[in-house]
Amino acid sequence: MEKDEIIRLLSDEAGEKELFDRADAVRKKYVDDEIHLRGLIEFSNICRNNCLYCGIRRGNDKAARYHMPEEEIIETARRAADMGFKTIVLQSGEDMFYTRERMSRIIAAIKKFDVAVTLSIGEREFDDYKAFREAGADRYLMRIETTDKELYHRLDPGMSWQYRYECLLMLKELGYELGSGIMVGLPGQSIESIAEDLIFLRNLPVDMAGIGPFIPHPDTPLARTSGGNLHLALRTMAVMRLLLPDINIPATTAMESLHPQGRIMALQCGANVVMPNVTDSEYKKLYQLYPGKTDVDKAPMHGFGKIGKLITDIGRTIGTGYGSHKSNLSV
Ligand code: SAM
Predict the structure, then answer these.
(1) Nearest ligand 1 atom, CA 56
(2) SS3 state of residue 100
(3) Among 62, 164, 277, 297, which is most buried by a count of CB atoms within 10 Å?
(4) What is the pLDDT of residues 96-127, one digit of tens each?
(5) 147 — phi, psi (to 5°)?
(6) Domains along the chain?
(7) How many angstroms separate the CA atoms of 202 and 239, rounded?
(8) Can you give the pTM of this predicted structure?
(9) Whose CA is nearest to atom 26 of ligand 1?
(10) Closest residue CA from atom 11 of ligand 1
(11) Which of 242, 252, 310, 248 is nearest to 32 (CA)?
């Protein structure tokens, strides 16, 4: 698909039903009806970065900070594995408290629970990524956020788009299943730029792609911007499914924050993964990337039951395996 056609599909509000049906059919053909559940542990909201859009940015002094002790992270993972999750996603701000050694210990301990381990802890050095892989990490998620370098540098002060890109290449070289993605609706982002983002993700290519609407957080410099549109985010996700038919695509929490049915809508236009939050609620409520994050007030581990029913209600099944990218089935 050429860029012009991608732009046309992204812009065509009236024709989105047709696009969604097409993406749903492609999803069914290539990755079938299974929905893979990943247990998400948000283990630290401490971050050295200062991204203008993010509620846990370094400069937000209203955010109460935490990092979970090692044993508690492992215990949370054990409970999630006992519940039936076959993948544990460890996500945090860029918190250097979790040194190479500490992180490797956590990964190795969690791997004993017969789960795939996905990391989403941002930019590190090659030797860190290598150590984490050797400790057993299987997958890595790191969104490029936008491929518009000028926009990136404006929104992520002090960071380097080029280094983030190089991190993605390092992760690939080390044999991780690679996840990346973007936010849709960033201030100053054009449809053409989103089309370029999609082409970038196709060319990497990624094994997983997370597309989420940008939601302004009140305690950030972008508080008064208008934020992303759910339908444009869904169209972006649907086009992603057409571009890379067999990858894993999550129905993102940010979609549900904009609409109570957001995740279900996403599952019906290309998505095949859901990441219920299994973090203890005392921490979960502090991991506020954006307002309205769903499930924040629910007791821990409730995600599986509720989402399990929603999945069967739309005629889909819950994956029982590790849910790796099909072309890369060894965990
Ligand atoms: N620190 C890691 C990293 O940089 O990849 C992982 C944590 S980071 C907070 C996870 C993702 O949250 C980011 O990649 C970004 O796309 C998303 N995010 C942050 N602020 C957001 C907002 N206001 N609205 C929607 N998504 C947001």
Answers:
(1) 9
(2) helix
(3) 277
(4) 999 999 999 999 999 999 999 999 999 999 99
(5) -95, 0
(6) 3-313 (3.20.20.70)
(7) 11
(8) 0.96
(9) 214
(10) 143
(11) 248
